[in-house]
Design goal:
The complex is a heterodimer of chains A (306) and B (547). Helix content of chain A is 77%, strand content 0%. Chain A is mostly helical and 306 residues long. Chain A is flat. In chain B, the strands form five sheets. In chain B, strands 1, 8, 9, 10, 11, 12, 13, 14, 15, 16 and 17 form an eleven-stranded mixed β-sheet that branches. Chain B has a four-stranded antiparallel β-sheet with strand order 4-5-7-6, with helices on one face. In chain B, α9 packs antiparallel against α11, α14 packs antiparallel against α15 and α15 packs antiparallel against α16. The chains are: A mainly alpha (306), B alpha+beta (547).
């Protein structure tokens, strides 16, 4: 297992290198000029050229890339064009914010999704099943920013129970974590239900029942364990997305995480910020995938890595 | 069996771990945050007995402002946006300032005077002014500031703003003379602009000694508030300066917290609930909504932003003045204002807006399609022509573009609207990449006519040099602008600017559209906030009304 993990980790290096080239090209070839966006038409051509020189935009792209990478390899992701803040430090601070939000959303969403999914599968086609499934389709279909604004209007503005937005105490977390988790919970519920239903139709389940095993034991010990494999994959992917920052939710609730950072960065063509975030998100996905694969081995003894 | 329990234990552990992290990290900021004290009463009081108390929120010591974006820099020499200016203004002061009526008033200087031919301006400084780091303000500091911004090696965004300065002369401990490169009677306007805020000599020396020293994120000025912290994506916090030089204008609150809240509807909600006391640049749709809200005051006034359709006068189709007049008559400006900015605006009756120094209203081109058609006929283009209209891709700009395109079609001009990201659009205009028609917006940073007219209409400001992207060449205008700039006599200058505006409006190198209102809203329990016409906010006198 250890060699397997080491090999997987080593494989990440060339992937991240390719990502860095793509990210660099992506931001530099996107139309729009950070200097113009930041300073507008207030500055004249002479100043404009000076500022371009200051940021090194007048060098050929390969030179700029080389300079960027040599800084990155020394752990320096540069300084934001827009706010002059150190990008590495800023990402560190915002990562924690995003991680808290994503973590809490994931925890409640996974628990709620699993429970409702299992109930739905076991009580298939019952009224409860239909209700839960309708709810989950609704939850997947509702745009999250809309749900966020709606909740804010009701819970914060009308009732005054919760603060509208921003970061502060636990109460600031409730609405964004709920909205962010709602979709995930629905997806987990549907996945669990269908996967469990499929497994319940397998021969070995019938055998287990035939030998006299109690129904609950069959469901939880035999069926659920096998049914969980696709659910784990999907949950991992969802977590990968969430940890990349929930762009809409973070913007609506002014949550200072990676998602709102990315949006600010893209809008302002803040190259160092966007490049660093793309690399980070890629790395996160690679790591999450690795964790998912490792979890497989625990769930299914047939899966072995060497 | 064993593995399963390991997995379970891991899962439980990670849950607990997340919870713990969640609680810790989130609680921390709240601990040193006075706001938590403000939060609580709102919950309990809001619904039951808030109405009988004018100060629904317990009058705290902190004013919270929601801005539409983060500042780009705390250095007045290195930023051009209104958000940065609003924040900087609490900490930095210049030799002169614009008062609420946009009149120039002495500030760190006690008095100022031009010499006879407006090539010099002499300042006598106040003697009791100290910076936040305790160092005094004197003539040497003023010189160091201007020398610093003018040095091209420092690469500051506002360097060209101060290009008119030839040399700064220290004439005494508290006396400074600015020598201009050429006669310039607008110098005082430039120096009253918030960009000309003075920073302490120690700051400048720190930057000179260590090029990595970050002036964008430090602020040592003379203002009534001092810099505390800037948390990215969250807030910039300033606190009361107890040693402020002007005892009559001491800050009346302990802190101001400038938060950045990108989503407009979130800003509106925060104001409704009372989490923030002031919201800047309100979308006009929301302003309508907020009008009736309790404890909220909405205010609006003309801004300095003029919207126009620029046209490339090198194109044959715009050569005839009658065609340009036809296009001006073809647009229903009142409907445009009603539709695009919910009525928060007025028809542009000059190339500059009413609050700009030197503004002189002209007779508006009334909406008249028949007249417009006959003018097209007169210009020899009765059958119309095709045109490309460039616009920025923001909602407001594209709405304007679609509207005018529709109306121009009425007189036979087939307009193809093309939307670009603003940086791209500026580049295309600067390089004249096939410029035809474009939607423009201009606001003179200095609040006076020279910056309102020169960049857009002077012959030497054609691409790539500046903003005269339509190649409007008129020697008469050049002469009038130069004469006004070198004439320190106020009445004579105003007359010269009046003449220039009259000629430009008649020549119609633009289709003059509208001047938008600046719209902002505040809680009823605070007072003393002014929106300056350049769009920045003056919060130095902010206070809670029942205090």
């Amino acid at each position: 297992m250890a060699t397997y993990i080491t090999r997987r980790l080593l494989q990440m290096i060339p992937i991240l290198f390719i990502v860095s080239v793509l990210a660099f090209l992506f931001v530099h070839l996107t139309p729009g000029d950070p200097i113009r966006i930041m300073y507008g038409i207030e500055i004249d051509q002479e100043t404009y050229q000076q500022l371009r020189e200051r940021e090194g935009f007048n060098d050929p792209l390969p030179v700029q890339y080389g300079r960027y990478m040599s800084d990155v390899l020394r752990g320096d992701f540069g300084v934001s064009y827009r706010t002059r803040a150190n990008v590495s430090a800023e990402i560190g601070r915002r990562f924690i914010n995003t991680f808290i939000l994503a973590g809490i959303s994931m925890v409640w969403a996974t628990i709620a999704g699993l429970i409702t999914g299992i109930i739905s599968a076991v009580k298939r086609n019952s009224l409860l099943d239909r209700f839960v499934m309708t709810l989950s389709v609704t939850s997947i279909s509702i745009p999250s920013f809309w749900l966020g604004l709606l909740l804010m209007q009701v819970l914060a503005v009308r009732l005054g129970w919760l603060p509208t937005s921003g970061i502060g105490g636990i109460r600031h977390l409730i609405m964004p974590a709920f909205v962010l988790g709602a979709t995930v919970a629905a997806i987990v519920a549907r996945f669990t239900r269908s996967s469990l239903l499929e497994t319940l139709g397998e021969d070995y389940i019938r055998t287990a029942r035939a030998k006299g095993q109690v129904r609950q034991k069959v469901i939880f010990r035999h069926a659920l364990r096998n049914a969980l494999i696709p659910v784990v994959t999907m949950t991992g992917l969802q977590f990968g997305f969430l940890i990349g920052g929930a762009i809409a939710i973070e913007t609506v609730f002014s949550w200072p995480g990676l998602g709102s950072y990315l949006i600010d960065g893209i809008l302002n063509r803040d190259y160092p910020v966007v490049q660093a975030l793309i690399m980070l998100f890629s790395l996160q996905f690679l790591v999450v995938n690795l964790l998912v694969d490792i979890t497989y081995a625990y769930l299914n003894p047939q899966i072995r890595y060497s | 069996m064993k593995k399963k329990s390991v997995l379970l234990a891991l899962l439980v552990l990670s849950l607990v771990f997340m919870m713990v992290i969640g609680c810790q990290d989130v609680e921390e900021p709240a601990a040193d945050d006075d706001e938590s004290g403000v939060d609580e009463p709102v919950d309990d009081v809001d619904d039951e007995d808030a109405e009988d108390d004018s100060g629904m929120i317990e009058a705290g010591d902190e004013i919270v402002v929601a801005l539409e974006a983060e500042p780009t820099s705390l250095d007045p020499f290195n930023s051009t946006d209104g958000v940065s200016t609003s924040v900087q203004k609490t900490m930095f002061e210049g030799l002169l300032k614009f008062d609420e009526n946009l009149q120039i008033a002495p500030f760190l200087a006690e008095s100022y005077e031009y010499n006879e031919d407006a090539t010099e301006i002499r300042f006598v400084l106040r003697e009791n002014v100290t910076f936040h780091d305790g160092t005094p303000l004197n003539a040497e500091v003023v010189k160091a500031n201007f020398d610093f911004v003018l040095d091209p090696d420092n690469g500051l965004a506002r360097r060209s703003f101060f290009n008119f300065i030839e040399e700064v002369e220290v004439a005494g401990e508290f006396e400074v003379i600015l020598h201009a490169t050429e006669a310039n009677a607008s110098m005082a306007s430039y120096l009253a602009h918030p960009t000309a805020g003075m920073k302490s000599l120690e700051e400048i020396n720190k930057k000179i000694e260590d090029p990595d020293y970050n002036l964008d994120r430090s602020a040592i000025g003379t203002g009534p508030f001092k810099y505390v912290e800037w948390l990215d994506g969250q807030h910039v916090l300033v606190e009361k300066n107890d040693d402020y030089w002007n005892q009559d204008a001491m800050a009346r609150v302990e802190n101001i917290k400038f938060t950045s809240v990108q989503e407009a509807s979130t800003r509106v909600n925060q104001l409704r609930v009372g989490e923030v006391h002031f919201v800047d640049t309100l979308p006009t749709g929301d302003a309508d909504d907020l009008m009736g809200a309790e404890h909220v005051t909405v205010f609006s006034g003309p801004s300095m932003n003029v919207f126009y359709i620029g046209m490339n006068l090198q194109e044959d189709k715009y050569e005839n003045e009658a065609v340009r007049h036809a296009m001006n008559h073809a647009i229903d400006k009142d409907q445009l204002i009603a539709q695009v900015v919910d009525g928060f605006g007025r028809v542009a009756d000059s190339a500059i807006a009413p609050p700009v120094y030197g503004y002189s209203p002209q007779e508006v081109y009334e909406y008249d399609v028949d007249l417009a058609k006959s003018l097209m006929d007169e210009g020899g283009l009765a059958e119309g022509f095709e045109a490309t209209l460039w616009t920025r891709n923001s909602t407001e700009f594209t709405a304007i573009a679609e509207f005018v395109a529709m109306q121009l079609r009425e007189i036979g001009i087939e307009v193809d609207v093309q939307a670009y990201e603003s940086g791209t659009l500026f580049d295309m205009l600067d390089n004249n990449d096939g410029t035809d028609l474009w939607i423009g917006r201009w606001s003179p940073g200095t609040g006076e006519a020279d910056w309102g007219l020169r960049p857009n209409f002077a012959s030497d400001r054609v691409p790539p040099n500046y903003n005269n992207s339509g190649f409007y060449i008129n020697e008469e205008i050049d002469d009038l602008l130069n004469a006004a700039l070198s004439n320190p006599d106020e009445a004579e200058r105003l007359e010269l600017y009046r003449q220039a505006q009259e000629i430009i409006y008649k020549d119609a190198p633009w289709v003059f559209l509208h001047v938008v209102d600046a719209v902002a809203a505040q809680r009823a329990e605070v007072g003393g906030i002014y929106i300056m016409q350049d769009g920045s906010v003056d919060m130095n006198g902010v206070h809670f009304i029942n205090q």
